[in-house]
Amino acid sequence: MEKFYVQGPTCLNGEIFISGAKNSALPILFATLLTTKPIELQNVPSLSDIDTAIQILRKLGATIKRSSSIYIDTSTVNNYKALFSTVTTMRASIWALGPLLIRFGCGEILLPGGCAIGKRPIDLHIKGLRKLGAEINLEKNSIKAQIDNQLKGAYISMESISVGATITIMITATLVSGITIIKNAAKEPEIVDTANFLNTIGAKIKGAGSNVITIEGVTNLSGGVYRILPDRIETGTFLIAAAVSGGHVTCFNTLPNLLNVILSKLYEAGADIKIGVDWISLKMQGRPKALNIDTAPYPGFPTDMQSQFSLLNVVAEGKSIVKETIFENRFMYIPELIRMGANITIRSNYAIFQGVNSLQGTKVKATDLRSAVSLVLAGCVAKGTTIIDDIYHIDRGYENIENKLTSIGAVIKRIDSK
């Protein structure tokens, strides 16, 4: 099992080139199952989750080559059953079901997995597919879908906002006869990116990024070239790295307009921020100011940045409250920060922070993707050595994390403890 050794405290300064967004790349990779024409995807990050998605597609029969881009030919896909153990390791595997159903008239996947950050039910995915006319049966460990009659467009009002279910319905409806309307749809930029990809290869999707998405079904999709948008969460993470360490970091290859709420909070914390067309620079002098935060669906404060801003509150001046409204287990990392000297009290779905002057390095354990990177940043600003176990979580969502951190002054080493 690999772990990180981080030596602190360090002040993080330098330039970072942001990778492509994992949360766009994954649905787009599975959406390539909808066409039999060649696809080239650019700016795809090198992550373990991406490797898992490629492995699943290959086992379904796709031909995939990877260099600076990913080249995908799904004309060779001949398997409608994604019954591989890799499916259970990643929540995004659910996005294979709709395209398989469209392509073969039936599909079966093992129940997908992912980070243990709370209940992430698949019921909205299933209800959406059933609204389109699919017959869905839940077996002990798998989901079976088939078409008895032709799938037809439908009016689907989401009971609650769900990024995953919005994507499932949208990509499936692309090749369904008639008009599909998704009301109370999620608005995340990664949904817009997925819709833009599908439109590039011939889909007719309108309204992505709003709470109503309209899909006019087409009979087939073509091939093409598409570039994945930059990762807004990685951008925010490296801006936090500068903020908590009293450093100065510039993120290139990013889209500032996707980080409005994050930048607003960082301004509130006292950061000096400069913005260009595709770059953001943050400089922090002295300790940041404590921030009250409530997570919310986009364009609200992203739950994927909650743990990073919680770390900021740990080292900030003053008292603050962070309320988590999306996932009930997203505070699992807080006991690890407390072991490093943080002053935090958890009350149901909110945490109360009293800023401390410094943290002390110790041995901690990552519990999910976003908290894992927060523990690494905590190690960068703590006194002494911090050892982070279970760092495979980080490799799921951050490309070359130790190399990028080293380039801005972190002292970090990956160790295989086997």
TrEMBL record:
Involved pathway(s): Cell wall biogenesis; peptidoglycan biosynthesis
Residues at the catalytic site: C115
Localization of this protein: Cytoplasm
Signal peptide limits: none
Record carries keyword Mitochondrion: no
Entry keyword annotation includes Aminoacyl-tRNA synthetase: no
Binding residues annotated for UDP-N-acetyl-alpha-D-glucosamine, in chain numbering: R91, R120, P121, I122, D123, L124, D304, I326
EC numbers, comma separated: 2.5.1.7
Binding site for phosphoenolpyruvate: K22, N23
Predominant location category: cytoplasm
Gene Ontology process terms (BP): cell division; cell wall organization; peptidoglycan biosynthetic process; regulation of cell shape; UDP-N-acetylgalactosamine biosynthetic process
Catalytic reaction equation(s): phosphoenolpyruvate + UDP-N-acetyl-alpha-D-glucosamine = UDP-N-acetyl-3-O-(1-carboxyvinyl)-alpha-D-glucosamine + phosphate
Residue ranges of every copy of the Enolpyruvate transferase domain listed in the record: 6-405
Alphabetic keyword roster: Cell cycle, Cell division, Cell shape, Cell wall biogenesis/degradation, Cytoplasm, Peptidoglycan synthesis, Pyruvate, Transferase
Molecular function as annotated in GO: UDP-N-acetylglucosamine 1-carboxyvinyltransferase activity
Pfam family, any one: EPSP_synthase
Gene3D superfamilies named among the record's database cross-references: Enolpyruvate transferase domain (3.65.10.10)
Listed PANTHER family: UDP-N-ACETYLGLUCOSAMINE 1-CARBOXYVINYLTRANSFERASE
Physiological role: Cell wall formation. Adds enolpyruvyl to UDP-N-acetylglucosamine.
Name of the protein: UDP-N-acetylglucosamine 1-carboxyvinyltransferase
Organism of origin: Candidatus Pantoea edessiphila
